[in-house]
Amino acid sequence: MSAFKAYDIRGIWGEDINEELCYRVGYFIPALLSSDHVVVGRDIRLSSDSAHDALVKGIQDSGADVWDIGLATTPMVYFSTVFLKADASVQITASHNPAKYNGLKISRTGAVPVGGESGLKELERMCREEKITVATERGRIIDKSAVRDDYIAFLKPYAAAIGNLNISMDCSFGMANLIAKDIFGSSVHYIYDHFDGTFPAHEPNPLEVRNCEDISRETTKNASDVGVIYDGDADRVMFIDEKGRFIQPDYITAVIGKYYHDKGRVGNALQDIRTSRSTTEYLEGLGFHVTTWKVGHAFAKMKIRELDAVFGGELAGHYYFKDFFWCDSGMLASLLVLNVVSELKKEGKTLSSLIDSIVRYSNSGEINFRLEEKDKAIAALYEKYVTNGQPKVVMDFDGYRIEYDTWWFNVRKSNTEPYLRIVAEARTREELEEKLGEIKGIIGSFS
């Protein structure tokens, strides 16, 4: 079953995932999570209604009730899981993937994620091997769509102090449109601010800079203080500074750290293994104790709970908050960043000036290599830079992060796509280009 990934169930609709799989997932989730009910939300992809109907039928046939919240952002499903005191939830979404994809994100009590090692592998086995017997008393469908208003009420206080800002916002034709105008009002310069599951303007993945070209132009055209762009299910968010420049998302982790520092809340913070030293050093300078961990929401949410961290951030634009049940929310992250920009503006400062003060190293961003012999390429990099080198630090829990005094790189296999991913950073652009050349040469020999 190729749709079962490390963090969720996801793939091309009609090929990797279909109504039958959604039905079987729905049937077995109540048993997997020992629950007599399942919260269900969905995005606006063209296949989501079909996925929803099949999933709901499976849940009912198991004898469990469906608590249907209707159209939802993924963070709204997390909120609902906690707010409604549910023991199981599913969001139907493929997040940032192109329109032909769909998927299922599953959580248990407290909005704790169900990942590969925490239930998904067992669910895959159940779907593949176990028989279905329709319950004598099928479950009910209970309308819980009013929880949208509760989620908005949770978020709105964070918007109270940003009225001085000129904001441009790209809702990517996705789920951010469900609540954005309720939170930010009508004075924001919106683009792609209605639902369209074909995502006609750009793919709903703002980590790809090409997908941010329109919001970058809007930000400068409108002389905005900041541009904001959400992904398809609004669990991720990216930012454009007032000069129209895309801000690398791990630098935003530092900005969120400033928000909490200025509120007097300093403690543990979580970052992923790809995070810039610029962010780490900035957060440590604010007084945070920074822990580096694996990429992916299922891993991050468990670690941030273990650490009792104030917040965490990832290069992919996921930001996690103790104040949000240690879950990620693109909308909450944007509100915190906008609070920082608002304070900067009151001081006559800009977002770009803050980012420029944070960034102290030259960074490659994440570079993807499509190749079959990924393990051999990783082994060759390890041999050169660890076995035959003298690294200062070697982290080996998500691929490798190999650090030297003046530069470092991370190499890891994607958990969701057929790529080998590289991030490298050095004190100077010249050293970065030199080291990237070496790394690309090694990887290229396995193409």
Written account of the structure:
By secondary structure, this protein is an alpha/beta fold. 36% of the residues lie in helices and 22% in strands. The protein has 14 helices and 23 strands. The strands form 4 sheets. Strands 1, 2, 3, 4, 5, 6 and 7 form a 7-stranded mixed β-sheet that branches. Strand 5 (101-108) and strand 6 (112-113) form a beta hairpin. Helix 1 packs across helix 4 (120-129). It starts with 8 loop residues before the first strand and ends with a helix. The model has no long low-confidence stretch (mean pLDDT 96).
Strand fraction equals 15-25%
Count of DSSP-assigned helices: 14
Spatial gap, N to C terminus: 27 Å
Helix content: 25-40%
> Which radius of gyration do the C-alpha atoms yield?
22 Å
Identify low-pLDDT runs.
Answer: none
Q: Decide which structural class fits the backbone.
A: alpha/beta
Oligomer: single chain
Shape: globular
Average pLDDT taken over every residue: 96
DSSP summary, beta strand count: 23
Largest pleated sheet: 7 strands, mixed
Can you tag this structure with a few keywords?
36% helix; 447 residues; alpha/beta
How does the SSE layout of this entry go?
Blueprint: E1 9-12, H1 19-32, E2 37-42, H2 48-61, E3 65-71, H3 74-83, E4 88-92, E5 101-108, E6 112-113, H4 120-129, E7 141-143, H5 147-155, E8 167-170, H6 180-184, E9 189-191, H7 213-221, E10 226-230, E11 237-241, E12 246-247, H8 249-262, E13 268-272, H9 277-286, E14 289-293, H10 297-307, E15 311-313, E16 319-321, E17 327-328, H11 330-346, H12 351-358, E18 362-363, E19 367-369, H13 374-387, E20 393-395, E21 400-403, E22 407-413, E23 420-426, H14 429-444
